[in-house]
Amino acid sequence: MTMRAPGSDLALMFEDAGVVVRGVTILDHVTLTIAAGPPTVLIGPNGSGKTTILRVAMGLTPLTSGRISWGGQESVAPPRRAIMSQRPVMLRRTAAANVHYALTAAHIPRTEHHDSAQELLALVGLESFGRRPARRLSGGEQQRLALARALARDPAVLFLDEPTASLDPYATKAIEDIIHAVRARGVKVVMATHDLGQAKRLAGDIILLHRGRVIENVRAEEFFAKTRTEEARKFIAGELLV
Question: Which domains does the chain have, with CATH numbers?
Answer without folding.
Answer: 1-80+154-242 (3.40.50.300), 90-148 (no CATH)
